[in-house]
Design goal:
Order of helices and strands: HEEEEHEEEHEHHH
Radius of gyration: 16 Å
Structural class: alpha+beta
CATH architecture: Beta Barrel
CATH class: Mainly Beta
Number of helices: 6
Distance between the termini: 22 Å
Shape: globular
Largest sheet: 5 strands, mixed, barrel
Number of strands: 8
Strand content: 15-25%
Oligomer: single chain
CATH topology: OB fold (Dihydrolipoamide Acetyltransferase, E2P)
């Protein structure tokens, strides 16, 4: 089964828990990293931090690959739906991104980018309020498949929240071994 077929099958399962948001359209300006984007809504440009997924940092193993994969989906000028959910401590808009059906093979409904990232092994599921139980199952399936950030095993993948707390010496030790 091809990767997009697997993604389509897994994404179909996560869509059943998503409600239609009627989210306003935004246009992608650029991806800063795999979970932070510069978006344009009308004449307003804003930074969006994706909810529901936490991707590796740029200096972390698989960080550049995850960013590149998401950047291809969110190419400059791509129109997406965004459901805003407040601001974070850094002034970024928090929210969900829904990709139009034409972007990926799906079941006729917009595809949540966070779920797609988890299914494709580009990010960890991040669901502190436990509102989307399907994401944990998606992450487990991705780990078992051993692709993307799980290529070298679950124990080799350091969650970004933990990575951000490491000093440069600890980060240097984690950069050896598995090559992505």
């Amino acid at each position: 089964m091809g990767e997009m077929a697997v993604v389509g099958a897994l994404v179909a399962g996560c869509l059943s828990g998503q409600r239609e948001t009627g989210a306003p359209l935004s246009m992608t300006v650029r991806a800063i990293d795999a979970h932070t984007y510069v978006m344009l809504s009308g004449t307003t440009t804003y930074r969006l931090r994706l909810l529901g997924a936490d991707a590796p940092e740029q200096d972390q193993a698989f960080g550049l690959q995850a960013t590149d994969s998401v950047a291809r989906l969110l190419a400059p000028g791509r129109v997406v739906m965004v459901a805003k959910a407040g601001l974070d401590l850094y002034g970024r808009t928090l929210g969900a991104v829904l990709l139009p059906v034409a972007t990926v093979a799906a079941a006729g409904r917009p595809v949540p980018l966070d779920s797609l990232m988890v299914v494709c092994s580009w990010a960890w599921a991040s669901d502190p309020d436990r509102k989307a139980a399907a994401r944990a199952a998606q992450q487990t399936a991705a780990q078992r498949a051993g692709r993307g950030l799980w290529k070298c095993g679950v124990s080799q993948a350091v969650p970004p929240k933990l990575w951000r707390s490491f000093d440069s010496e600890i980060k240097r030790r984690y950069r050896v071994g598995c090559t992505w």
